[in-house]
TrEMBL record:
Native species: Aspergillus chinensis
Family (UniProt): Belongs to the calmodulin family.
Primary gene name: cmd
PROSITE patterns: EF_HAND_1 (PS00018), EF_HAND_2 (PS50222)
Domain EF-hand residue range list: 1-36, 37-72, 74-109
Protein name as catalogued: Calmodulin
InterPro entries, A to Z: CALM/Myosin/TropC-like, EF-hand-dom_pair, EF_Hand_1_Ca_BS, EF_hand_dom
Keywords annotated in UniProt: Calcium, Metal-binding, Repeat
């Protein structure tokens, strides 16, 4: 299922349908997402995963790029930071009281009944 989502995403990048994403196509999509990468930044992004050194990204290279991005999304540091939000007394554990505090005061606040 994930691969079919990536295939769909790849086809959004691959504007001319030739099976390759060029710096121009990558730039077009990134600009549509509100980013403004320079030509050299786009080239660097492609070079990072361009295994066959042809200057473009094919689907297997795109999968490599997505796998790296997915791996990078939940770095250990980010997880530790999130844990600290819950662990208010910094003892390395999240008590029921600490969990209750977070669930009733942050984000979509739950009532005491909902927490119980």
């Amino acid at each position: 299922e994930q691969v079919s989502e990536y295939k769909e995403a790849f086809s959004l990048f691959d504007k001319d349908g030739d099976g390759q994403i060029t710096t121009k196509e990558l730039g077009t999509v990134m600009r549509s997402l509100g980013q403004n990468p320079s030509e050299s930044e786009l080239q660097d992004m492609i070079n990072e995963v361009d295994a066959d050194n042809n200057g473009t990204i094919d689907f297997p290279e795109f999968l490599t790029m997505m796998a790296r991005k997915m791996k990078d999304t939940d770095s250990e540091e980010e997880i530790r930071e999130a844990f600290k939000v819950f662990d208010r007394d910094n003892n390395g554990f999240i008590s029921a009281a600490e969990l209750r505090h977070v669930m009733t005061s942050i984000g979509e606040k739950l009532t005491d009944d909902e927490v119980d």
